[in-house]
Design a protein that fits this description.
It is a single chain. This protein is an alpha+beta fold. It contains 20 helices and 26 strands. The strands form six sheets. Strands 17-18-20-19-21-24-22-23 form an eight-stranded mixed beta sheet, with helices on both faces. A six-stranded mixed beta sheet has the order 5-8-9-11-15-14, with no helix packed on it. The longest helix is centred in the last third of the chain and has 26 residues. The protein is globular, with a radius of gyration of 27 Å. It is found in: Cytoplasm, Cytosol.
Length: about 725
């Protein structure tokens, strides 16, 4: 790798204030066309202008010394020469010595959702002195706020209220990402459970993950978690708890599976201060006696899992060439927040012309499904397929796979160790309180000074809606063309993944309570395509997967579909792009016509985009189904079935002549689009520079090159030898 390309890979990183100031000061002096003639360290020069440091290298060229920063050394924590960085816990958290591991496994058949019978019980428990407490974790309440951390937490001998009895289940959750506060045995085979709120808060009881031992096969056990706070839940829409058996894993290679009967989510009588709590109850028979089992809200993905994954990349001689792993910052507990730069290294300055794509995940630690989507994305983008290589050749990917490792480690659902939701604090200036989002915002700001960022996406999980969908930002008050443009990528994604991704569930608006989210902040910074991708904890209501749960492979597949849609969105052949644009305008026309017939003055935005709710879910929460008309309309709009062409097909003479004819037709169509959008231009004041519709469509026109330009553009965007694999997506 050349020095120019290495400087490009690492110059966006943000590690500390010292690094940031040094980099901003001295990178200004670096020449684009450096040819190294001599190399000295700054401390070897007696000139007082240069500080006495070995981190600045001086290159002598063209009669003068040019300073530059030394390239970063191997990252501690993922270096091939050392162990993984140990996890750090709040000092008072009790942690068992046992390392919890699970195998990866995908069910042979889709797992159906639970169908209520109407006969499910609603256990209500009154406090009684005769209760038998079998598990109690009070360490979380020893401090009112975070004080300091230590490696491995509190490893003093751990005690439990009840010793191992013949017929009593034993519970444990004092391991990484575990969450269980108290268990009471209320009957011979019935247990009342309480999950722990996020550390240093008194709320956010949603995530659970605990171990059960001393099991007996063939016995119907009942488990009831009594202190949930959300009135609505996917458990009342067919979602089942997850179960893992170590004996099943070792004997039959079976991992996490959906289980449970008599599943019910309901309001109970355990409320305090006039605030009601809600219970989840289910029954289950263990497959083996004397087994070690686990229950979880969603498929666990821990900080250790991430570190092991990154270590594998770092030790791979192929992937490590185009994936550079660095430390973005350290958390409050001094755990590392990693940032990945993924792009094909070049030996010239062409890399500066590449546009950037940014992905982040796990700002909410209990939304583990976002980590599985992130894993699928990384598996694909770091793979050896021709499409993955094309993406690496075309873009610079900046990836922060886990924004809140502290919360992940301690088993929080939503907050960091500051006791706050990080996804409401992207505007905060409190770097010490919210380091990961502060440094992420700063990294993106500096990146935007060097290159265009075409897309930002923050991955989340959603607790109240099925399917996978996106939240975007509303540009209708500025420019109708931008208003439609922001919907093109989600629409493409829904076409490429019709059985998982729901375009009708997507929302494009900004509530005041969401102005501190990553999605809104990045949009206001100037990133037009700024999204939150929400993945349900449950499953799908679409296509062939209707009525079944998502497993880890389903979630990972969204990483591939994201990449596939990105190729569609940026394809030099703009056929799909303009097809989606026309389809979106057709949706607007039909809905406006329906509302005119209904004698209503409600705009498209008010019709199709119902408000996101408060912070009870992820980026936004409960929403109604007012966009079902869009879904029906989408299925009624018939367009030509088109598939992506390979590089050879795109460069063939027949394809070029066909594209020329299509362009002539599209120019006519765009004339109609331009006229319609000119009529709806808005001059609302905004912090960003105003852009006219003519400018927007001039940009669109530039994406339709003539015959000679198309051949050149294809040669630049496609690999020199490999063909791009034919996309699985079809536009119906």
């Amino acid at each position: 790798m050349s020095e120019d390309s290495e400087k490009e890979d690492y110059s966006d990183r943000t590690i500390s204030d010292e690094d940031e100031s040094d980099e901003d000061t001295f990178m200004k002096f670096v020449n684009e066309d450096i040819h190294q003639c001599a190399l000295l360290t700054a401390d070897s020069i007696s000139d007082p202008f240069f500080p006495g440091t070995t981190q600045i290298l001086l290159e002598y060229q063209l009669g003068r010394w040019v300073p530059r920063l030394r390239e970063p050394r191997d990252l501690y924590g993922v270096s091939s020469s050392g162990p993984l960085s140990p996890t750090r816990w709040p000092y008072h958290c009790e942690v068992i010595d046992e390392k919890i591991e699970h195998i990866d496994w995908t069910p042979l058949n889709p797992e159906p959702m639970y169908i209520p019978t109407g006969l499910e019980m609603e256990p209500l428990y009154a406090n009684s002195k005769e209760e038998t407490v079998v598990y109690l974790a009070e360490d979380a309440y020893k401090e009112p706020c975070f004080v300091y951390s230590r490696v491995g937490g509190n490893r003093t001998p751990l005690k439990q209220p009840v010793d191992n009895c013949d017929d009593t289940l034993m519970f444990e959750a004092r391991f990484e990402s575990g969450n269980l506060q108290k268990v009471v045995k209320v009957a011979e085979y019935e247990y009342q459970l309480t999950v722990r709120p996020d550390l240093f808060t008194n709320k956010h009881t949603q995530w659970y993950y605990f171990q059960v031992t001393n099991t007996q096969a063939g016995i119907v056990y009942r488990f009831t978690i009594i202190n949930f706070t959300k009135p609505a839940s996917l458990y009342n829409r067919g979602m089942r708890p997850l179960f893992y058996s170590e004996k099943e894993a070792s004997a039959h290679n079976i991992g996490w599976q959906r289980i449970g009967d008599q599943i019910k989510y309901y309001r109970n009588n355990q409320g305090q201060d006039r605030h009601h709590h809600f219970s989840l109850t289910w029954t289950f028979q263990f497959p083996h006696s004397k087994d070690t089992c686990y229950f979880a809200h969603c498929y666990p993905y821990t900080y250790t899992n991430l570190q092991e994954y990154l270590s594998g990349i770092n030790n791979d001689p192929v992937r490590s060439k185009f994936c550079k792993i660095r430390v973005l910052c350290h958390t409050i507990a001094r755990n590392m927040v990693y940032i990945l730069t993924i792009t094909t290294p070049l030996k010239n300055s062409e890399s500066r012309k590449r546009k950037a794509v940014i992905l982040t995940a796990r700002v909410h630690p209990g939304e583990t499904n976002s980590s599985w989507i992130m894993k699928g994305f990384l598996d694909y983008i770091l793979g050896n397929s021709s499409d993955a290589k094309l993406l690496r050749d075309t873009f610079v990917f900046k990836v922060v796979p886990m924004l809140n490792p502290d919360g992940v480690i301690v088993g929080n659902y939503r907050c960091s160790l500051a006791g706050r939701d990080l996804n409401r604090n992207y505007t905060s200036l409190l770097k010490e309180s919210f380091p990961s989002v502060w440094y992420t915002r700063n990294m993106i700001r500096r990146l935007m000074e060097k290159r265009e960022v075409i897309l930002y996406c923050d991955l989340h999980g959603h607790s109240k809606k099925e399917n996978i969908f996106m939240y975007g930002c509303d540009g209708s008050d500025r420019c109708k063309a931008l208003y439609l443009q922001q919907r093109i990528f989600p629409l493409m994604l829904s076409k490429n993944c019709p059985d998982k991704f729901s375009f009708s569930s997507c929302k494009f608006n900004i509530q005041k309570s969401k102005e501190g989210t990553g999605r809104v902040v990045m949009w206001k910074m100037g990133i037009r395509n700024s999204f939150t991708m929400e993945a349900t904890f449950c499953g799908s209501t679409l296509g062939n997967k209707r009525g079944t749960h998502f497993n880890t492979k389903d979630l990972e597949s969204m990483g591939y579909h994201f990449c596939d849609s990105l190729l569609d969105y940026c394809d030099p052949d703009r056929t799909k792009y303009y097809q989606c644009l026309r389809e979106l305008e057709e949706m607007e026309k039909h809905i406006n016509l329906e509302k005119v017939i209904d004698d209503s003055d409600t705009s498209l935005k008010e019709i199709t985009l119902d408000l996101e709710t408060s912070s009870h879910a992820s980026d936004s929460s409960e929403s109604n189904d007012s966009q079902t008309d869009l879904l029906k309309l989408n299925s009624q709009i018939k367009t030509k079935k088109i598939q992506l062409k390979t590089k050879k097909e795109r460069n063939s003479t027949i394809a070029r002549h066909q594209n020329i004819r299509e362009e002539e037709q599209e120019v006519c169509d765009k004339g109609h689009l331009v006229q319609r959008h000119k009529e709806s231009v808005s001059d609302v004041t905004d912090t960003r520079p105003s852009i006219s519709d003519d400018c927007i469509f001039d940009y669109f026109r530039r994406q339709l090159p003539n015959q000679a330009e198309r051949s050149l553009e294809s040669s630049l965007l496609s690999p020199p030898t490999d063909d791009r694999t034919q996309a699985h997506a079809t536009f119906d």
